[in-house]
Each structure stands twice: as structure tokens, then as C-alpha cells.
Specification:
- The chain has 337 residues and is an alpha+beta fold.
- The chain folds into 2 domains: 240 residues, Glutamine synthetase/guanido kinase, catalytic domain (Creatine Kinase, Chain A, domain 2); 87 residues, no CATH class.
- It has 11 helices and 10 strands.
- It is globular, with a radius of gyration of 21 Å.
- It starts with 14 loop residues before the first strand and ends with a helix.
Length: 337
């Protein structure tokens, strides 16, 4: 079976993916900003020893053992954060399985960041999985916990449950109809945050936005999941309404979609941002049944393998920027055909 980021899931015409993350620290060790290199190594060894007992096919990999292209490819899949790859005094490792739906960062800004992923809207299932992993891990190590504040974290905003639930949504119709700013205000008013995956406003090539909770203390894990789900359902409804409105002038929409598909499939070279924008317009065409030349699976492949890191992993060699533009156009043709 294909990895989760190559699959479609529930509500995947709008919801690209879901993630639930837990921040944890070990009792008896300082937070990383005051933790010596020797103690950080001790944390890694302590966790490494218990990885086989966790199950799920997890493997322990030191970050320094990965080449730069592999690190970039993991960032592009959202499996690790960009900050995690930055060279600093922290000694880091990742625990990951072959399906890549579980990724645990060690010594990012907290000792442990457990993450689970899925295509589409699957927050409830992801919560069940991450609680299971967290409980297994919590039986083998002692977490830093305070009965008044909950799980103690390096950043006060994560203290409490330590949970961050998020979904990435594709909102091209709200952008095209000029209604996106209203929706962004509504989300922020509900105490959640929404931000562009690739930047804000007109610079968010790809029309992808991440919705996530702000509050982690004074609220339960179930309430966090319910809040993000409720807002996501409203966003889905608004985006689908905007798509119906666009379909009233099908000729204009068809023109946008097929122009994008034409450039995408006939270009001799493609830049990263240009490709994202074109793929966004192609995706809405596929989701609305306007474009039948490719299916959802191919759109997923195009979205992944046109990103710089995964493009280089796909071809098996390191390329400079200009070479990537040429190879990106070739890969698009290969996948489409």
C-alpha cells in the first residue's frame, strides 16, 4: 500500500492531511536550552534502547546520519520540522516507520515530539493511535509532569496536554471568490490559528492552509480534537459552497483548469512556486470532475515528487536549481502519462 501522503482520505477534496503531535520531556533532565551535549546523548541512548519494545516497525536514526536531500524530503512531507534540521548544539535523532505515518523527533525543542499522520480528515483515529504510543512510551520512561500544569514543555504554549492537532486544507475556491479573508478571521476568532503552508495571502502558492489549536492547558485532548474538527467542517462547507458558485460559470473555471494543465504538461521547465500554483488549479479541476485526464492518485504523486527534496530522491541524484526546473517538467510528463 502507498504511504499516507500518496493516498486520499476522508474529505480529501478539501482536507489534504491530518496530524496530531504530543510534546514530552523526560523527568530528571533539563530542558534542551540548558541540557549538556552529554545529557542529550544520554536521552537518545535511553530512547534508542526501548524503540524495539514500542513496535509499529519503528527505526531509530541519528539525524547526522541522513544526507541533506533526505532531510529536505522529510521536511517536505511534514515528518520533521525545518527547525529540526538546523545545525546547533542539540544532538538529534528521528524514530520513524516504513509507512511514515509515525515520526518521533528527539531533541528538537523538547526531548520527545511524537507525531502521527494521515491523509484526509482522520483526527479521531490519529488521537487513538498517538495516545496508544504515548502510553506505551510513558510506561518505559518517566515524563516531566506537574499535577497542576500537566506535561511540562520547553515552550509554555505547549504545557498542559502538550497536544497540537492540525489539518492542512486546500482552499482555491475561497481564494478565487475573494472570500478567504472572511474565513481566516472566523477561524482566528474561535481561538484556533490558520496560516498559509507556503506563506500568506497571494504568496501562498498552492492555496494550502494549516488549521491548528492554540490552547493546550486547561483543555482536554478530546476537546482539542473536537474544536479543530468543528472548525474544519465549517471550512469544508465554505470551500464547497465557493466551488459550487464557481461552477455556475463552468466555462471560466474550465479555462483556468485546462490552461494550468496545459502549461504543466507541456512546459520544458517548471519552477517550484509556479508548479505549486498550477497543481492547485489542476487539483480543483480533478476534484470537481472537470479534468478527467488524470486522477487523484496522480495529483498526489505530482504534489510530492515536484518538491525539490523529493524530486532529487525520485531521480536519485543531487541537482542544482536550474537542473531541477528541467527535471521537474520531465517528471510531470512521466507521472501524467
Amino acid at each position: 500500500m502507498a504511504n499516507w501522503y500518496l493516498q486520499n482520505g476522508k474529505e480529501s477534496d478539501v482536507v489534504v492531511s491530518s496530524r496530531v503531535r504530543l510534546s514530552r520531556n523526560l523527568n530528571g533532565f533539563n530542558f534542551l536550552n540548558r541540557c549538556s551535549k552529554e545529557k542529550q546523548e544520554e536521552i537518545l541512548e535511553k530512547i534508542k534502547e526501548i524503540v524495539p519494545s514500542l513496535g509499529y516497525g519503528l527505526k531509530f536514526i541519528k539525524l547526522d546520519d541522513l544526507d541533506e536531500v533526505t532531510k529536505l524530503s522529510l521536511v517536505e512531507k511534514n515528518l520533521i520540522s525545518p527547525e529540526f534540521t538546523v545545525k546547533n548544539k542539540n544532538v538529534k535523532a528521528i524514530i520513524i516507520n516504513d509507512e511514515e505515518n509515525i515520526s518521533i523527533m528527539l531533541n528538537e525543542d523538547d526531548h520527545i515530539k511524537i507525531q502521527v499522520f494521515s491523509a484526509g480528515q482522520e483526527l479521531d483515529n490519529l488521537m487513538s493511535l498517538i495516545v496508544e504510543i504515548d502510553e506505551k512510551l510513558g510506561e518505559m520512561v518517566e515524563y516531566a509532569y506537574n499535577k497542576n500544569f500537566g506535561y511540562l514543555t520547553a515552550s509554555p504554549v505547549d504545557t498542559g496536554t502538550g497536544m497540537k492537532a492540525s489539518v492542512i486544507v486546500h482552499l482555491p475556491a475561497l481564494t478565487l471568490t475573494g472570500n478567504l479573508s472572511k474565513v481566516l478571521r472566523i477561524v482566528n476568532n474561535f481561538g484556533l490559528s490558520i496560516k498559509g503552508v507556503y506563506g500568506e495571502g497571494s504568496q501562498n502558492y498552492g492555496d494550502l492552509y494549516q488549521i491548528s489549536n492554540n490552547q493546550t492547558i486547561g483543555i482536554t485532548e478530546k476537546e482539542i480534537i473536537a474544536n479543530v474538527k468543528n472548525i474544519t467542517e465549517k471550512i469544508i462547507e465554505q470551500e464547497r459552497t465557493a466551488r459550487k458558485y464557481l461552477c455556475k460559470n463552468e466555462l471560466e473555471l474550465r479555462d483556468i483548469v485546462y490552461r494550468a494543465f496545459g502549461v504543466l504538461t507541456f512546459a520544458s521547465k517548471l519552477g517550484t512556486e509556479e508548479c505549486r500554483k498550477l497543481l492547485s488549479e489542476v487539483k480543483i479541476g480533478v476534484d470537481l470532475g472537470i479534468l478527467n485526464e488524470i486522477d487523484d492518485g496522480k495529483v498526489r504523486k505530482l504534489e510530492l515528487y515536484t518538491k525539490p527534496g523529493n524530486l532529487q530522491k525520485y531521480v536519485g541524484k543531487t541537482l542544482d536549481g536550474y537542473e531541477r526546473e528541467i527535471k521537474r517538467a520531465e517528471i510531470v510528463k512521466q507521472i501524467v502519462k
